[in-house]
Every structure is written in C-alpha cells, then in structure tokens.
Amino acid sequence: MKTPSTGPAGEVIDPIRHRALGTASRASILELVRAAGGGLTIAEVGERTGLHPSTARTHLDRLVDAGLLVKARASGGQPGRPAWRYRVTGEDGPAPAPYRALAAALLDHLARSGRGDVRAEAARAGREWGHHLAAATPSGGNPVDTLLAVLRGLGFSPSLQPTADGSTEIHLSTCPFLELVGRNPDAICGLHVGVVRGALEQAGGPPSDAVLEPFGAPTACVVRLTLPPSAT
Q1: Alpha carbon 19 to chain centroid distance?
Q2: Is 84 left (phi over 0), alpha (psi -120 to 50) or beta?
Q3: What CA–CA distance (Å, rounded) separates 181 from 189?
Q4: Distances (CA, A) of 137 to 20, 33, 108, 130, 163
C-alpha cells in the first residue's frame, strides 16, 4: 500500500535564531537539552558531547540569547553556589518571524506585479538570500555542510538521506513557511530552491544542479543534488 505524501509539518521559527543554530554543535546541544526533561548543566553537556566546559557554556549561552533555552540555578541541595541548569523555552511563547514576513511580502509583490515567471522571479530573490545566509554561517567542511547549516537555521530540520548513485538527497521535514505555500506554491517553492542554490554557490559548490521536489517523500520535501555529500 502506498504511503500518502503528506509533506512537511509547518513550524513558526524566530529568524534571529538562525545564527544560533548555524553550527552542528549548537543544534546537537539543543536536541540534548530538549531530550532531558529536567534540563542539563554545563558539566553534563560537556560530558555528553566531549566539549570543554567553557566551550559548552558559550554554545549554551548563545542558545539562551536566541530565545531557544532558558537557564536557572540548579539547586541540588549541595553546598556552595549551584550550577546553571539549561532548559528549553516554552513552546507557546511569542516567536517573531521577519523571514516569514519577508516571504509574505514577496508573495504580495509578485501578485501585484503580475509580470514574468513567478517561480523564476522568486528563485532569483531566494538566490540572493541564500548568498547572504551562507555568508553569515560558519564555514562547513564542504558546500553540503554549509547548506545543511543554512537550512537548519531557517527551521527546515534537514537530514541527509543515502542514495544508491552517490548523489545527495536532503529531506526537509518541517517548513517555516508552510501556510504561505497555499497562497502561491510556485513562488514559495521557487524561493526555497533559490536559497539552496545561492547557499551552495556562496560555499563554492555548483548551484545550478539543485532541484527541489515539494512533498517528494511521505513526510518531507526533497532537495536533490548531483554532487556527493562529501564534495569539497
């Protein structure tokens, strides 16, 4: 029986968090803290990740500054000053989203202009956006790593999937712009593929081979690249 293609889930993400989630270390730390119901201390994060405590503290505080974590003194009944304990923020808190506002403004502009190829126009805008985001992202080991960091920072929850032919396939399991797709799917999907190509180009990879297949997997949109995941 064929699994229905439901596509990615929608998610509101604060774009200020892009830099905070621009490294694999901080994204991993966020997942560790999220999985620990009672939160984690700096020492516990250091033990689980192998990071020096000062490095772990820097990453944790960046996540706090971005509004992804909160910290409080971990009172465990021990003498002396208790350690900081970091926990995820409440899911119902306000989340300003200028990126989403930018996407909505692009849709309105394209609807008013009514000229040219909407998808191509959106892709051009997305490409410039992708250049900017990749330039603001700490350099990865290769263009695919940089692209993953950009997509992660935007809230797409990207994951690399193995392929038989050695090419790269990235599944996007959440979409911070999902409710806008219904207004103009060509524009939003064009914007996304433009971001992918711009980020790859900024990172030194070939941008033109990137293809975005909306709902290409049962629970995700799929980015397909001809270069292998380890390409430099």
Answers
A1: 10
A2: beta
A3: 8
A4: 10, 23, 29, 10, 27
Among candidate residues 162, 146, 166, 157, the one with its CA nearest the CA of residue 219: 157
> Is 227:205 a contact under the CB 8 Å cutoff?
yes
| Strand partners of residue 222 | 171, 213
Token pair of 96 as six digits: 């300003």
The model's pLDDT over 44-98, given as tens digits with 9 standing for 90+, comes to 999 999 999 999 999 998 888 877 887 766 544 445 566 788 887 654 333 235 5
Strongest mean pLDDT among 46-60, 99-113, 154-168: 46-60
Greater model confidence, 10 or 163: 163
DSSP structure class, residue 77: S
- Spatial separation of the C-alpha atoms in residues 40 and 131, rounded to whole Å: 35
**pLDDT given for residue 3 in this prediction:** 54
Structure token digits, residue 100? 């989403």
Rounded Cα distance between 182 and 178, Å, is: 8
CA distance 77 to 51: 26
Sheet holding 83-88, edge to edge: 40-41, 83-88, 69-74
